[in-house]
## 1
Amino acid sequence: MDDVEGKLKELHEQTMGDDGWCATNAQRAARVLWPLFHMSRADADNVVRDALCELRHACDLLGLSFSDEDRAAHRVYMAEVAERGVASFDEPA
């Protein structure tokens, strides 16, 4: 995990500008994943699983349908992938 964690930290730090804008999909992923890795110290699959579970609780709390939000998020994801490709630690910043 140390290698992944270090790469996430580096990508996350690249997003810490005044506007929080992310130039790459890897930076978008790191913006979310780095705080989760930092807080949980879990491995990658557990961090994502835990985040999805917490988002389900958040939707319950806010009276939102997780399924509806997931479908809407998938459309945004597909547009971002079409524009910039799949996130990778090897993509240029």
Note: The longest helix spans residues 44-62.
## 2
Amino acid sequence: MLKDKKLLWESDLFEELNQQKGELIEGGGRYFATKLTRVTAGKNGEFLITWAGGAPTPSPCGTGVNWGWVLLPDNNQKDLALFAYLNEKPVRIDTSGCTGNFETVNFLFVG
């Protein structure tokens, strides 16, 4: 790491960003979490994650309830999410679009 440039995942910067509740960005959201608090898989292969505070409820995706969860559509993201969950790693979750009542994760960054 370069000392004169702060990278997103340096702990002091990440902690500062984590103090934000998250922000809705055009077409989706950007959320910061010190760790994922739950992961679950559905019978049809859907994979959902949440964190302390979770995604906005009610969901910006329609009128249904999302209970603070977001949906991971990509198998690589599922593996990354499990890694972050099991190792209690900080994450940044970027969403874009909706799948039912859930925001769809398009990027998952692990610190």
Note: Residues 26-110 form a domain with the OB fold (Dihydrolipoamide Acetyltransferase, E2P) fold (CATH 2.40.50).
## 3
Amino acid sequence: MNLKPFHKQVARSVLEYLFARQGEWTGLWDLYFAGKKDKVYDVAEAMPLHWSRRRRLALMRVIVRNGLSGGCDCGCRGDFEITDKGLIYINKPRTKEYTGY
């Protein structure tokens, strides 16, 4: 990935977050559901809190474009899921089947 070291660190944090939630719905909701009764996993939890939605979405676009995560980076809910390439990047094994979204 062609990113600055800090952004690579954040990207790794996002991939670790997705790894921990394999098989779960993981979107980019910008913490909208934070503190709500129903837990919705949000990749924004793995990014700096002061980042804007636009910046968070830009990082997810880079991650998806590089094949490290599947999902939709248009600005909808996302449905992000770590790919085999992403697992190699963070040196982790697959624990749940990839849905191929």
Note: The two ends are 21 Å apart (CA to CA).
